[in-house]
Design a protein that fits this description.
- The structure holds 2 protein chains of 2 kinds.
- By secondary structure, chain A is mainly beta.
- Chain A has 1 helix and 9 strands.
- Chain A starts with 11 loop residues before the first strand and ends with a helix.
- Chain B is α/β, with parallel strands linked by helices.
- In chain B, helix 12 packs across helix 15.
- Chain B has 7 domains: 169 residues, FAD/NAD(P)-binding domain, CATH 3.50.50; 116 residues, FAD/NAD(P)-binding domain, CATH 3.50.50; 79 residues, 2-Layer Sandwich (Enolase-like, domain 1), CATH 3.30.390.30; 68 residues, BFD-like [2Fe-2S]-binding domain (Arc Repressor Mutant, subunit A, Orthogonal Bundle); 52 residues; 82 residues, Alpha-Beta Complex (Sulfite Reductase Hemoprotein, domain 2), CATH 3.90.480; 153 residues, Sulfite Reductase Hemoprotein, domain 1, CATH 3.30.413.10.
- Classes of the chains: A mainly beta, B alpha/beta.
């Protein structure tokens, strides 16, 4: 269910600081697989999901963040930020891939959803 | 057998507690020598705050007096810092050249307060808050006439310092870098309450404030300059921004040191003869600054020192703030997270906020504010890791409620309750009082019990118990009732009640409303947050600052989100009028940004569809340059004012309907409303502007203006009703504005005007807007006041850079990685 795309130590990429994202808000960033949404909850926790609702591909980064969930701006699916799964009445209707996140000294590291550049393999 | 030599470096809480633990296990094993850098016996450092506050004196906080050292045969070198450590020869060297050999060495060197390297930080009057010396300096400073303090750091220590100074009559301001006080212990809801409580105790807080430099006069601090340019004047500046393990001696002695002296589970450092306890060490990558873990470490170290198997597994942390009358407890993963569930309880009357966090049926964290009596109980449940699923329903009410109801079904629990047991904690109503009220008053409904006894009238959490008491008394005669529909699942209060209390209790932030009305979630949901944001904006124009994160994306980015995640942009065309220049600018924008669709809307405007979010500011800038502003086609706000050409051109026109439409729109644009508001002005009863299906419409006639209200042509189709007829254009404007202001003040969020009218009745509107001229004037004035803060083009603000992060990606680093 919980599709984690890549999870390897060497892929962690620094994408900014925790305070770059407003509390109860999100920011989005481009990636080869499509936009990634990075969320900061009211409690300060950071999550990342592919920026597509499993319902009609709405941009989750535009949703209202509440607790550890986000409501899709298009049709109000409530997505669990930790699992990418819809909750409540829409439970079981698909799943948004999560992107592994780490916070180190206030900086946000994402595990890239792509293989490493060739020069790093050499 | 001769005694082994144990040398302890550090005469603080950790060092002495470790010695006590060793003596408890084997009193005769060691000849003990203690070095302390402070010229004092061991005292309870965590009680320095009460000493600062004048609630205790030094003698009260002494832990081990001189007699204790003597009785246990301990040699104490007080006020003598150890300057070198030689693990090879197992010798330590102290100030004055005193060399002492050891068989076992225990490092308990504690930590140093961090001093921010701000320009001017070496001025007199800049202190840290760490030892008795600091406290003495702070007490002396507080006695100066005209003294004032600034404390940098809104953590536990900083707040206690500020509170202590304020108790001594010194006004204190806490400057905190983040937007949540004690962010490692509190969530935003508890932090809000703490800010309020501190303010009542004379401590102001500056949140999100970055220190820039220390302002000095004649070598003495005179203020703190913030990065936003403000200067907070002060005669004492306290830095309480954290601690750093004091590991210099260990590092110089060649021991392994990361942030602190690295120890294993037996508390042994990289040298097998040397152990460490307390704040100087690092265990499994973790440094500790609280006292409870230190006690655990001392037990483990003593086990190791007496041939036992010391085993320290790290500590779960809990915190209490020592500010008199402010009860704060925090432990574990108080902020929840992955797969966690929150249970939230608020009691506005007592200023209580409680949040416990469950994961897999177990308690993993909690924050308590205002009533922390059950902190210890929760902490025990967390540490023991027991499954709390079966007490989940009552867990948040604490130990006594949970245990008294344990294992009973709620009905029998009420039956089994003694008459004296309290059912409603908020209002102190016992079961007996409710039973008596039901019998004597012939009460049959929850509402009537509430009215008579106040039981369940505050937070409502005991509503089930009150209902069960009714059922118990009335048997089948009782039917559960439903009150007004709650705003959402986060609360049992309805919209009307919520709006009333925001005004009456002068609640001026979302967190204030959630606390006062006892919201059951930490930060609301997508239904209540936008509603509260609107209610606050409407109640406190110019005072409440809009919470962007509580707005739907359309209102946050001033455009309408489309199915593919792009946006549509609609510039305002006053009364449906436009000019060749505006049309040219729109055409240029459509070309420049490759906007795929340009469409004429039903509201006499032009819609640019398919604009990429990142392009929005540039699109607006170009439209602004041609004199156009946001049309608010995306908002719960005034949208269009549709007009016909009236007397200007039409051979049937009776009045200048276009002119009135433009006048209305220019006066009312930018105002926020419970739901969207569309106006129409028709120049004659032929009604070409379709004013009779608008929220508010005006039909011009020969003798004046008919003001219509309550139309709709969307999901629901409904013609307007006539509110009244007025003679002049200005009166027409006053009337339209007054009825919309009334709606702004009374409507429920997302309730269109026609629904609001159906709820309150057309007669009520007529009485207040048509018949009561003073009332109409007051409504008009309130609207006009609010417009001072609303008639601002959000596009221009964004073009000027407000919250521009919204339109930039967080990072482009992933973009260039090859797929």
């Amino acid at each position: 269910m919980n599709a984690i795309l890549v999870h390897r130590e060497s892929f962690w990429t620094d994408v900014g600081t925790v305070t770059d994202i407003p509390r109860r808000g999100a920011r989005r960033l481009p990636s080869p697989q499509g936009p990634v949404a990075v969320f900061r909850t009211g409690d300060g926790a950071i999550y990342a999901l592919m920026d597509k609702c499993p319902h009609k591909q709405g941009p989750l980064s535009e949703g209202i963040v509440h607790g550890a969930s986000v409501s899709c701006p298009l049709h109000g699916f409530v997505i669990d930020l930790a699992t990418g799964e819809p909750t409540g009445a829409d439970k079981g209707k698909g799943c948004t891939p999560t992107v592994p996140v780490r916070v180190v000294d206030g900086r946000i590291l994402l595990a890239l959803p792509c293989p490493p550049p060739a020069d790093r393999l050499a | 057998m001769p005694k082994q030599r144990l040398v302890v470096i550090g005469n603080g809480m950790a060092g002495c507690r470790a010695i006590e633990e060793v003596l408890k296990r084997d009193p005769d094993r060691y000849a003990i020598t203690v070095f302390g850098a402070e010229p004092r016996v061991n005292y309870n450092r965590i009680m320095l705050s009460p000493v600062l506050a004048g609630e205790k004196v030094f003698e009260d906080i002494v832990l081990n007096d001189a007699e204790w050292y003597r009785a246990n045969g301990i040699t104490l070198h007080c006020g003598r810092a150890v300057t070198a450590l030689d693990p090879q020869s197992r010798t330590v060297i102290a100030e004055g050249g005193l060399a002492v050999g050891y068989d076992k060495l225990l490092l308990a060197t504690g930590s140093d307060p961090i001093r921010l390297p701000l320009p001017g930080a070496d001025a007199k009057g800049v202190v840290t808050f760490r030892d008795l010396h600091d406290v003495e300096a702070m007490v002396a400073a507080s006695a100066e006439p005209g003294a004032g303090a600034v404390v940098i750091g809104g953590g536990l220590l900083g707040l206690e310092a500020a509170y202590g100074l304020s108790r001594r009559g010194m006004p204190a301001t806490v400057v905190h870098l983040l937007d949540v006080l004690m962010e490692r212990q509190l969530d935003p809801a508890a932090s809000y309450l703490l800010q309020e409580a501190l303010l009542q105790r004379g401590v102001k807080t500056e949140m999100g404030a970055q220190s820039d430099c220390v302002v000095t006069r004649d070598g003495h601090v005179s203020g703190l300059k913030l990065s936003d340019g403000r200067v907070l004047p002060c005669s004492l500046l306290v830095m309480a921004v954290g601690i750093r393990p004091n590991a210099a001696l260990a590092r110089a002695g060649g021991l392994t040191v990361n942030r602190g002296v690295v120890v294993d589970d037996a508390m042994v450092t990289s040298d097998p003869a040397i152990l460490a306890v307390g704040e100087c060490l690092e265990h499994r990558g973790q440094c500790y600054g609280l006292v409870a873990p230190i006690w655990d470490m001392c037990r483990a170290a003593a086990d190791t020192l007496t041939d036992g198997a010391g085993s320290y597994q790290g500590s779960l942390l809990s915190t209490r703030l020592k500010v008199s009358g402010v009860d704060v407890f925090s432990a574990g993963r108080f902020a929840g997270g992955e797969d966690c569930q929150d249970i939230v309880y608020r009691d506005a009357g007592r200023g209580v906020y409680k949040r416990v966090v469950l994961q897999d049926g177990k308690l993993v964290g909690g924050v308590l504010f205002g009533d922390a009596a059950d902190g210890g109980w929760y902490f025990d449940l967390m540490r023991s890791g027991v499954d709390v699923s079966d007490i989940r329903d009552t867990l948040i009410f604490g130990q006594s409620v949970t245990e008294s109801l344990a294992g009973r079904d709620p009905n029998s629990a009420v039956a089994a309750m003694p008459d004296t047991q309290e059912i409603c904690g908020c209002n102190g109503v016992s079961k007996g009082a409710i039973v008596t009220a039901i019998a004597e008053g012939g009460l049959t409904t929850l509402e009537s019990v509430r009215a008579v006894t106040k039981a369940s009238a505050s937070c409502g959490s005991c509503t089930p118990l009150v209902e069960q008491t009714l059922k118990l008394c009335l048997g089948e005669g009782f039917q559960a009732q439903t009150g007004p529909k709650p705003v959402c699942a986060c609360t049992h209060h309805g919209h009307a009640e919520t709006r009333r209390r925001i005004v009456e209790e002068e609640l001026k932030s979302i967190l204030a409303v959630m606390q006062a009305l006892e919201w059951t979630t930490p930060d609301g949901c997508p239904s209540c947050r936008p509603a509260l944001n609107y209610y606050l904006l409407c109640a406190w124009p110019g005072e409440y600052s809009d919470d962007k994160q509580s707005r739907f994306t359309n209102e946050r980015v001033h455009a309408n989100i489309q199915k593919d995640g792009t946006y549509s942009v609609v510039p305002r065309m006053w009364g449906g009028l436009t000019t060749p220049n505006e049309l040219r600018a729109i055409a240029d924008v459509a070309d420049k940004f490759a906007i795929p669709t340009v469409k004429v809307t039903g509201g006499q405007r032009i819609d640019l569809l398919g604009v990429k979010k990142d392009d929005l500011p540039a699109v607006w800038a170009d439209l602004n340059a041609a004199g156009m502003v946001s049309g608010h086609a995306y908002g719960k706000a005034l949208r269009t004012v549709k007009t016909c050409v009236g007397t200007d051109w039409c051979r049937f026109g009776t009045q200048d309907s276009t002119g009135l439409g433009v006048r209305l729109e220019k006066f009312m644009w930018g105002s926020w409303t419970p739901a969207k508001v569309k106006l129409g002005v028709s120049g004659c009863p032929r009604n070409c502007a379709e004013a009779t299906c608008k929220d508010v419409g005006v039909i011009c006639v020969d003798s004046g203006y008919e003001v219509h209200v309550g139309g709709a042509a969307g999901l629901h189709i409904q013609g307007t009703e006539v509110l009244g007829k007025v003679a002049t254009e200005t009166e027409a404007l006053w009337t339209v504005v007054a009825v919309i202001q009334l709606y702004r003040e009374e409507g429920w969020y997302l309730e269109r005007i026609y629904k609001w009218m159906a709820r309150v009745g057309l007669d009520s509107l007529k009485a207040r807007v048509i018949d009561d001229l003073e009332g109409r004037r007051a409504l008009y004035d309130r609207f006009a006041y609010s417009q001072r803060f609303s008639r601002i083009d959000p596009w221009a603000e964004r073009v000027a850079g407000r919250a521009s992060d919204e339109f930039h990606p967080l990072s482009r680093r992933l973009e260039f990685a090859p797929a």
